Amino acid sequence: MVVWITGASSGIGEELAYQLASLGAALILSARREDELQRVKRGCVERCGLQEKDILVLPLDLLDRGSHEALAKTALEHWGRIDVLVNNGGRSQRALCLDTSLEVYQALMELNFLGTVSITKQVLPHMVLRGAGTVATVSSLVGLAGAPLATGYSASKHALQGFFNSLRTELTDSPGITISTVCPGPVQSSIVQNAFTEELDKALPITGDQGHKMPTSRCVRLILVGVANGVKEMWIAQQPFLLFYYLWQYTPTLAWALTNRLGSRRVQNFKAGLDADAAYFTKPKTKTS
User: If you count DSSP H runs as helices and E runs as strands, how many of each does the chain have, helices first?
Assistant: First the structure.
């Protein structure tokens, strides 16, 4: 199969490339950093036995939507088809709403939502003509229920949920096309290091320990199992996060109470200069000099 992965230079996208390569898939690897894509390509060849001709490196900027048509044409001319599109590119956020500039919210929607929609619209007509294909989009559990410090990120993922849920219904006359939405919880990846803060060019000062998060390899393994079985929506997380989202689905009143309690702790630790993710597992502390 031919699989196009966006955001393939690190994290979930990089691990997807390795695991798909080990299964013998032909790959199209896209992200902004061509040098990192070439590194991932070398890893696929060295670790998984693919040949260089089996992997097309196709640098892609999700914000440059004017280039997407030509890039999709290049991908299709190279392989003749795209069986699976994995929309994985995007950035997270760690900032309080009151401190966050509007430009950050605009950038999150442009990148995570409109960039993903743009690539999908370039590939989808080809799949409809063939009558087969899969579009798998990496959303997030915060696309189902919001979380503090990620108001813009959560909004962009909610937008993806709404778009692909609606698209899935539009395609009922094309039963060979699967629209699959992936909702991971906390996963060990570089997404935190690259997160937006309150200003566009300001880096996150603390990323913290990721030991409590699901290993990237386990998350990707579950994604591939879900895609192979045509699962429409996947919730992928370790406990207690998975239980929390079942509460959101079935007992929202209780979920709101827990969200307020845990979210308050998360915000307190963030204000104290501590890692936001680890805040669920530690007591709020006072920032020391």
Answer: 9, 7
Task: Note whether 152 and 196 are within 8 A (CB).
Answer: yes
**Rg of the Cα trace of the chain?**
19
Torsion of CA 160, 166, 167, 168, to 10 degrees: 110
pLDDT for residue 170: 97
What positions carry a catalytic annotation?
A: 153
Best CA proximity match to 207, nearest among 110, 279, 121, 99? 279
- Residue from 172, 254, 241, 169 nearest 212 by CA: 241
Of the ranges 207-221, 223-237, 244-258, which one carries the lowest mean pLDDT score? 207-221
3-state secondary structure of 289: coil
Q: Which residues contact 149 (CB under 8 A, 6 or more apart)?
A: 93, 94, 95, 96, 266, 267, 270, 276
Predicted TM-score (pTM) of the model is 0.92
Three-class secondary structure of residue 4 per DSSP: strand
**If you search the block for the tokens 């692909």, which residue do you land on?**
164
